């Protein structure tokens, strides 16, 4: 082929086209020769492992993704094992040393970060505070206006017993969730709690606002902030976040709990004996 190409006359159109066809055919032939050689090599490799070498080689083509030999032969590969995570409590490690490692200078030989009592923290930082003193418990009930609007009983025992009663359990079964709520993409806890407005308002308001409201997201307003402190001063704060949230329109219990931990405690607005602070000002329950 090489000799034929060398004798072509570039000045003749016919010969030029002929040489071009020969060149294209030559490249195709090279590809076929390469593939044939690869197939021969595959035949010898597969034959060395047993099985129908000719059949297996004929199924292989360059560039095709191949399954591992062991899997083709029906072998079961050993599962990959991964070590399970353990909490700091199970590993016997002080949680402050891991969760708040950012309080420690990188690469320093400083002691493990120490959790400070609230009074100790604000004194160390020279901050003058006049906190609301709380024992860490909310002692109120659902907001009165909300109770009247939706017919919620005046105390938790009546609310529970007048709406089915029964044994309380944290476990939620699929059968507890109404069918019309299963397609909303909610968690089981959120779906089930939406049915408890009258029976267990604390569970309801932890994840839901009152039916006539739309939940607010994002930063808290000054009005919401002041209302939070007023409720804390009147009823205490630290537990039953659903009931607490019923007093703050458009906020739910988990939002109030997060605001308490991330803003109220670190700013010294409430002293709760169940909390301590790191040197960096993060509240630890």
TrEMBL record:
SUPFAM superfamilies: Homeodomain-like. This is Myb-like domain-containing protein. InterPro entries: Homeodomain-like_sf, SANT/Myb. Residues 212-264 form the Myb-like domain. Residues 87-110 are annotated as: Disordered. Residues 101-110 have a biased composition (Basic and acidic residues).
């Amino acid at each position: 082929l090489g000799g034929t190409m060398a004798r072509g006359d570039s000045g003749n159109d016919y010969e030029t086209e002929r040489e071009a066809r020969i060149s294209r055919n030559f490249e195709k032939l090279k590809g076929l020769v390469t593939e044939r050689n690869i197939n021969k090599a595959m035949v010898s490799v597969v034959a060395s492992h047993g099985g129908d070498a000719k059949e297996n080689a004929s199924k292989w083509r360059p560039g095709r993704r191949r399954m591992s030999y062991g899997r083709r032969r029906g072998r079961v590969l050993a599962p990959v094992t991964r070590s399970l995570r353990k909490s700091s409590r199970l590993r016997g490690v002080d949680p402050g040393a891991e969760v708040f490692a950012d309080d420690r200078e990188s690469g320093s030989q400083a002691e493990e970060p120490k959790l400070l009592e609230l009074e100790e923290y604000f004194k160390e930082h020279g901050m003058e505070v006049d906190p609301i003193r709380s024992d860490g418990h909310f002692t109120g009930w659902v907001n009165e206006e909300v109770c009247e609007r939706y017919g919620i009983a005046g105390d938790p025992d009546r609310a529970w017993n007048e709406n089915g009663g029964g044994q309380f359990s944290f476990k939620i079964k699929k059968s507890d969730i109404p069918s019309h709520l299963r397609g909303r993409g909610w968690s089981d806890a959120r779906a089930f709690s939406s049915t408890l407005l009258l029976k267990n308002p604390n569970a309801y308001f932890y994840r839901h606002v009152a039916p006539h409201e739309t939940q607010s997201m994002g930063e808290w307003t000054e009005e919401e902030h002041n209302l939070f402190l007023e409720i804390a001063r009147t009823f205490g704060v630290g537990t039953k976040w659903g009931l607490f949230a019923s007093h703050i329109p458009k906020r739910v219990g988990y939002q109030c709990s997060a605001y308490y931990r991330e803003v109220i405690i670190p700013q010294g607005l409430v002293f709760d004996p169940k909390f301590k602070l790191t040197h960096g000002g993060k509240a630890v329950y």
